[in-house]
Amino acid sequence: MTKLIHLSGELERKNGGNRAVVPTMGALHQGHLDLVDAARERVGSNGEVVVTIFVNPTQFGQTAEFEHYPRTLESDFEKCYTSGVDIVFAPSAAQMYPDAGAPSEYVSVHPGPLGEILEGADRPGHFTGVLTIVAKLLNLTKPDCAFFGEKDYQQLILISQMVRQLNFPVQIIGTPTRREPDGLAMSSRNMFLDSDQRSQATVISQALVIAQETDGSVAEKLRAARFVVDGKIETSYLVAMSNDLSQELAVTDPNPEGRLLYAGVLGGTRLIDNMPI
Ligand code: AMP
Fold first, then answer.
1. What is the rounded distance in angstroms from the CA atom of residue 31 to the CA atom of residue 23?
2. Does the global pTM surpass 0.85?
3. Residue-range domains of the chain with CATH
4. 32 CA from centroid of ligand 1 (Å)
5. Would you give the DSSP letter of residue 123?
6. Which atom belonging to ligand 1 lies closest to the Cα atom of 35?
7. Which of 54, 128, 162, 169 is most deeply packed, by most CB within 10 A?
8. Where are the alpha helices (DSSP H) in the chain?
9. Is the predicted pLDDT of residue 15 greater than 80, yes or no?
């Protein structure tokens, strides 16, 4: 039986098993449900799977984007119920930010230099918002493990870094990106694409696959990927980085190993994706 709760006071632990948490902003799709399945696999039938649903204002640059973010609690709850989630924790903004003053004025987590590049460069303050809300949700739900998607690769690395460097007693587990049949990474934002933009968006995963399949140096892989996206989508970045995102791969590296990361904007909708190389 899935319990829907809005107040953190009702989050006390069931006796016995481990607890896994899957933090989300709702508008759930199969990518989120993969995290739920991985969480269940980890904690077993004696454990508890908690999904949190909260559209966090402090990680959005523009108020309009925050206001237009899809909110579909009823169907999200049904999906959680069907997937065997134990608890859906859907707090209100007042519950998460109870003190006087704007949420942006709260004590926050400083992401360090890794929060300034890629998504952090294009969306100033984004990762401060993300890390702060994740820290709050981890403190409220007190899980043994927490699941995050590789889809938001930089976010996954930053959260792992926060937990390690700030000594949070929780294990962070990444889960592979779930894709549509044509390769587009599933995202709650895909619903903002019209049908032309939706077909255009497939060039992102195509570019990353072509880079993976191109034999040669980083420069050759990036050139092949750029050829696919150029003129089809407004690219913000396309880079090859080490797996921990600490450095860009040398363009001359003949046997590159790391992560290829992409961000672009299509008709006002920001889309991101990444793949290993
Ligand atoms: P969001 O609701 O977009 O904040 O995402 C909540 C969690 O689901 C994050 O850990 C995301 O990385 C993850 N996620 C989002 N889309 C996907 C996807 N297509 N495949 C796997 N995980 C995803």
1. 12
2. yes
3. 3-175 (3.40.50.620), 188-276 (3.30.1300.10)
4. 5
5. S
6. 22
7. 162
8. 30-43, 63-68, 73-82, 93-96, 119-122, 126-141, 153-165, 195-200, 202-213, 218-229
9. no
